[in-house]
């Protein structure tokens, strides 16, 4: 089986920013962060700690893995650039890029540039120009979707037990709230992503005539080079209206899970609630370049829209390879 991320330099990701006008002053300062051996949120947490700044004042446009070399952007509210630039953290570099009056938001990118070294190949990678827009393993990372499931199902004691939280007097909600709204929403989002992948698998199984199956942590995924209609697929939440073929698939999934759309409105923990959104069924893989370094090693370069996974492009290329 092939290997990626044997070393951080094997997996390079660079954000293509979508800033509004940069200014010489403003409420928010924007920075470019180079890092390796850190995931995004751990770097932000360390910056906040060392700079003595509330973590709530930081925002990012994308979340990047630990086992990679990445360039990405973040904003900080109410600080001058010097306060951030003088913080020194191993395996990171920070560069000020300007000020503005709005924080960065997740997905506020034009895309991401990837350069990936694939090692230990036992066949040639196939070429692709589009990708089924699943969420990949990084989204789930062990139990994230199960933690989100327990929140949506209001199984708060189960959630606390999974994280081994010490709860006094069965006040589970108060203990859960200490985790913070960003982390709680992340768990719920992971559960939504799990359901999305299941819906995509069922839908494509009905549409594709010829396909390959990829084993994934969240369940099998179907891929093919035979295009189908590129529809918007719900990422189900409390405001989602389930319509059409994909809606019927979702209704079956939710019934199996024992939940309804409105369960994503968590009255006990409103900060963890999710109204839902939607995501393209297919995404274009731009500027794909495949270079064979030797019989067992290849370099793959490409661009993806924000929120899509470079690791899935490699999985599909391998599945369709010969």
Strand fraction band? Answer: 25-35%
**Order of H and E elements:** EEHEEHEEEHHHHEEEHEEEEH
- The outline comes out as globular
Total count of strands: 14
Cα radius of gyration in angstroms = 21 Å
Structural class computed from helices and strand pairing: alpha+beta
What is the first-to-last residue Cα distance? 13 Å
Rounded mean pLDDT score = 94
Please give the largest β-sheet. Answer: 8 strands, mixed
* Count of folded domains: 2
- Low-pLDDT ranges: none
Helix content: 25-40%
Count of individual helical segments: 8
Question: Summarize this, please?
Answer:
This protein is α+β, with helices and mostly antiparallel strands.
Tell me what the structure shows:
- The chain has helices at 40-51, 81-85, 144-152, 156-162, 172-177, 181-207, 244-257, 310-319; strands at 11-17, 28-36, 58-60, 69-77, 92-100, 109-118, 130-132, 212-214, 221-223, 232-235, 277-280, 282-284, 286-294, 297-304.
- The protein is of the alpha+beta class and 322 residues long.
- The chain folds into 2 domains: 19-107, 2-Layer Sandwich (Alpha-Beta Plaits), CATH 3.30.70.3160; 130-283, no CATH class.
- Strands 1, 2, 3, 4, 5, 6, 13 and 14 form an 8-stranded mixed sheet that branches. A two-stranded antiparallel sheet has the order 7-12. Strands 8-9 form a two-stranded antiparallel sheet.
- The longest helix has 27 residues, at 181-207.
- It is globular.
- The model has no long low-confidence stretch (mean pLDDT 94).
């Amino acid at each position: 089986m092939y290997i990626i991320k044997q070393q951080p330099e094997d997996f390079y990701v660079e954000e293509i920013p979508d800033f509004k006008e940069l200014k010489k002053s403003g409420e928010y300062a924007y920075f470019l962060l180079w890092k390796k051996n850190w995931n995004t949120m751990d770097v932000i947490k360390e910056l906040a700690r060392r700079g003595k700044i509330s973590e709530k004042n930081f925002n990012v446009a994308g979340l990047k893995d630990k086992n990679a070399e990445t360039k990405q952007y973040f904003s900080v509210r109410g600080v001058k650039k010097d306060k951030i630039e003088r913080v020194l953290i191993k395996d990171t570099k920070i560069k000020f890029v300007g000020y503005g009056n709005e924080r960065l938001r997740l997905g506020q990118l034009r895309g991401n540039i990837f350069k990936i070294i694939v090692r230990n190949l036992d066949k040639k990678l196939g070429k692709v120009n589009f990708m089924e827009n699943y969420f990949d393993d990084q989204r789930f990372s062990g139990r994230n979707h199960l933690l989100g499931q327990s929140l949506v199902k209001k199984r708060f004691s189960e959630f606390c037990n999974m994280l081994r939280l010490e709860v006094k007097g069965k006040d589970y909600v108060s203990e859960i709230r200490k985790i913070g709204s960003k982390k709680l929403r992340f768990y719920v989002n992971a559960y939504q992503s799990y359901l999305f992948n299941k819906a995509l698998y069922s839908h494509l199984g009905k549409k594709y005539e010829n396909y390959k199956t990829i084993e994934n942590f969240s369940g099998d995924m179907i891929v093919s080079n035979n295009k189908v209609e590129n529809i918007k697929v719900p990422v189900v939440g409390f405001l989602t209206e389930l319509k059409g073929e994909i809606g019927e698939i979702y209704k079956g999934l939710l019934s199996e899970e024992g939940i309804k759309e409105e369960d994503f409105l968590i009255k006990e923990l409103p900060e963890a609630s999710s109204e839902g959104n939607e995501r393209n069924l297919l995404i274009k893989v731009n500027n794909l370049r495949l270079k064979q370094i030797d019989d067992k090693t290849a370099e793959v370069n490409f661009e993806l829209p924000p929120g899509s996974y470079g690791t899935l492009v490699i999985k599909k290329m391998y599945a369709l390879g010969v």
